[in-house]
Amino acid sequence: MTTQPHPLMARSATGLPEAWRPIDRLLHRWVLSHGGTEDLARLGGALSAATGEGHSALAVEDALRLGAPTLDHDALDALLGAWLGPPEADTPFVRDGNARVYLRRYWQAEAAIAAAVAAVVQATLPAFATAIDEATLDALFGGPSTPETTPQREAVRRCLGTRLFVLTGGPGTGKTTTVRRMLMARQRLQDTPLAVRVAAPTGKAAQRLAESLREGEGLPVAPVALTVHRLLDYQPHAQAFGRHRGRPIEADLVVVDEASMLDLETLHALLDALPPHAALWLVGDADQLSPVGPGSALQDLVQAFEARDASPLVRLRHSFRAEAVLATVNAALREGDGGALAEAIDRSEGAVRVLDTTTPAAVQAALRDWAEALLTDAAMPLLPADPAQAASLAAAALRGLKARQWLCAVRDGAFGSVEANQRLDAALRRHAGVNAQGEWYPGRRVLVTRNDTDTGLFNGDVGLCLADADGRLRVWFERIDEGGIAPARALPIGALPAFDLGFALTVHKSQGSEYAEVAVLLPPDPEHRVLSRELLYTAASRAKRMLTLHADDAVIDACLDRPVRRAGGLHVRLAEALAAATPRDAGSVPG
C-alpha cells in the first residue's frame, strides 16, 4: 500500500528554490501549517536561507534570489500583520524599514549587542583610568616609542579605562605581544592578581594564545585559557549558555582571541555574562572571513568604532614577520589589489607560488606531491612505555603538525577537503603498510567536528594517531584545562567523538591556526559562490613561511573583486547607540 504524502507536505515540496536547505523548507511548511499565506511562507524560507549564508537579515534586494516574493515598499506593507511587523510588534518576522527583514531572534541579538556595547563603552573604570606615563610605557616596551610600536603603545593607553576594547590587525602585527603588555599594564594598576580568562572560539586558538602569553615575563598569574563555549558554560542538551547576567563569568578581565569568528548570538552571550566590574577585550583580524553563524560582529564593531575619534579600538598594521613578502601578499589580498599581488609574488623568490591546478587530474598530482612532503617531515615516533615520556614525545609530534597544511575553499567534490583527505589518507596508509582492511596507522590526523563533554574535546581539536610501546594505536590531543595548557593525552580509537580526517581543512576550519607552509586549493569556476576576497586572505594569512595557491588567474581575480557583504543592521544600530552614549561610572551600568 502506497502512503500518500500529507497535502501540506506535497504543497510545500513543489516550486521551491533548489538551493533551500531542509531547515528552510521546514520553516516554509511551518508557516503554512500555522495559517500563513504562501508569500509569508516563502518569506520565512528565504529568511532561513539568508541565515544559512551568514546574513543576520534578508536584504530586500536579495529577496527574489533567495526565494521570497518581491519586497518593495508596497509589498512589505501588504504583508504586515500577525507574521510581519515593526521591531516593537510581537511578530516572528521583523521589518526593519524598507531595507531588511529579520527572523526576530537575530533582530533581538543585534539590538541587545548594540545596547550592551553602548553600556560598556559608557562605563569608565575610575580606579584604573589614570593616564599611563611614557616612562612606564618605555619599561613595558623595552625602549622609547618607534613608528612600529606607536599603535601598540596606544592600545595599552586606551584599554585601561574602558570595559570594552577591540584590538585588530593582520598576521604578524604583534596582537599577542600587545595583549601581553596590556595585561602587564592593567596588572600594575591593581594590588591583587588579576583574575583573567583567555578564550577563543576554537581550542586551537585558545591554546596558541595561552602559549604565547606564557612565553613572556611580567604576568604574575598565568591566564586561564578556554574555548568561548566552555567559558560560557555551554549546555548542549539545553542549547543554552550557563553563564549569563544572573550567573556571570568569574573574572576581572576576559580576553577573546580570534574574535572575527564570533557570531551574533555568541557575542551577545559574552556581553550578557560579563560581570559589572570586569572588562572585555576582543582581539582578532577584522579582514578575515566572517563567522560560520549569522552576522559579522567584529567587523561591524570595528566599522562603528573607527567612525569615532579616540574610540576603544586600535588597528595594528605593521608586520613584524621576517617573511616580509608574505606580509606584502597579505596586504594586497586584503585590499583586493591584483597588481600589487602580482608584484609581490614576482619578488617572493619562490616563497609564494601560483600553480594552475584546475582539473581533477592536476589536483590528484598535487596531492601526491603533498603526501610525499608529509612523509619527509618526520617519522612518527614509537612512544616509550613511560607515560610522562610518551606524553612529551606525543606533544612534540603534535607541534610538528604545524609544519604544513593543505587548505580547501570547499568541502565537497574533486576540489574539496573530503576527497583531498581521502587521497592523502590512502597514500599515507599505503606507505605505512596497512592492508586494505586496515584503517588506522601512526601519523593519521583527525579533526574533531563536535563538542564532546565526555572526552573534553571540542570542535576543531586536532588529533594524531601514534603507536604505544606495545604497538597499540591511540589518538593524542593537545588540550587545555582550567589551569591552562595541560600535557598531551591519548584516547582509544573507539572513544573518539565525531571526527573528520585532518590532512586537509576547509579555510573556515583553519581559522585560529598558523602553519609554516600552506597550500590553498580553490575551485576552478570563477563564478563559484564561495570565492571571496576574505576567503583568499584568510587562507593565505595562515602561512608563515611558504604559500602555494592552486588556482588560475581568473579565479584569483574573482576573489579579489568580491568582498563579502553580509546583510544586517548591527553596524547601523551600533552607530546610533554609540552616538547617544555618554560616559558614566561603571557601577551604574548593568552587567
What would your notes on this structure say?
The protein is of the alpha/beta class and about 600 residues long. Helices cover about 40% and strands about 20% of the residues. Helix 2 runs antiparallel to helix 3 (about 40-50). The longest helix has 19 residues, at about 105-120. It is globular, with a radius of gyration of 25 Å.
Low-confidence spans: pLDDT under 50, at least 5 residues? 1-12, 585-591
Taking the alpha carbons of the first and last residues, their distance comes to 61 Å
Tell me the fraction of residues in β-strands, as a range: 15-25%
Whole-number mean pLDDT: 88
User: Which strands sit side by side, in order, in the main sheet?
Assistant: 8-7-11-12-6-13
Please give the count of helices: 21
* Rg on CA atoms, Å: 25 Å
| Helix percentage range | 25-40%
Which SSEs are present, and which pair or pack?
Blueprint: H1 7-12, H2 22-33, H3 38-52, E1 58-59, H4 73-79, E2 84-85, E3 93-96, E4 100-103, H5 104-122, E5 123-124, H6 134-141, H7 150-159, E6 164-169, H8 175-188, E7 196-200, H9 203-215, E8 224-227, H10 228-231, E9 234-235, E10 240-241, E11 253-256, H11 264-272, E12 279-284, H12 297-306, E13 313-316, H13 324-335, H14 338-346, E14 352-355, H15 360-377, H16 387-400, E15 404-408, H17 417-432, E16 445-448, E17 462-467, E18 473-481, E19 484-492, E20 499-501, E21 504-506, H18 507-510, E22 515-521, H19 533-540, E23 543-550, H20 553-560, H21 570-579, E24 584-585
Parallel strand pairs: 2-3, 5-24, 6-12, 6-13, 7-8, 7-11, 11-12, 14-23, 15-21, 15-22, 22-23
Antiparallel strand pairs: 1-4, 3-4, 9-10, 16-17, 16-20, 17-18, 18-19
Helix pairs in contact: 2-3, 5-11, 5-21, 7-8, 12-21, 13-14, 13-19, 15-17, 19-20
